Amino acid sequence: MSIFHNNIIQVLQLAVEDCVPNIKSHCSQQIPGWNEYVKVSHSIARDAFNLWLIIGKPCQGAIYNHMKFSCSRFKYAVHCIKKNEKKTKLINLLMNSVNNIMCHSGNWLRS
Predict the structure, then answer these.
(1) What's the CA dihedral at 102, 104, 92, 36 to 10 degrees?
(2) Are the CB atoms for 43 and 76 separated by under 8 Å?
């Protein structure tokens, strides 16, 4: 019965993958490690880009160079955390598990 059930589930999952479009929304996508590694460079790049826009999108000069450099640092930070996404998820899971064990063992010791 279990094998039959698993086969039905597998067939249904394959049918859904074939028939239902998988649209990924970039707005709601959470990237592990964003706050630790990317947030600051994103803020700097955004501010530099807005300054570049305000002064009329120059094609050369210090403001242009700062905007390009900060944008490239931001993109590199995103690239690095996406490259190590599985490792970061594993570390976060491990840390959460350790914290939960410590909290529960503390409560167990007090009982």
Answers:
(1) -70
(2) no
Q: Where are the domains of the chain?
A: 32-97
CB 79 within 8 A of CB 29: no
Q: How far apart are CA 15 and CA 12, in angstroms?
A: 5
Helix (H, G, I), strand (E, B) or coil at 22: coil
For residue 10, give the amino acid letter: Q
**How far, CA to CA in Å, does 105 sit from each of 64, 65, 97, 99, 108?**
55, 54, 12, 10, 5
> Confidence band (pLDDT; 50, 70, 90) for 23?
low
Task: Report pTM.
Answer: 0.56
From 68-72, 78-82, 91-95, 104-108, the region with the lowest mean pLDDT: 104-108
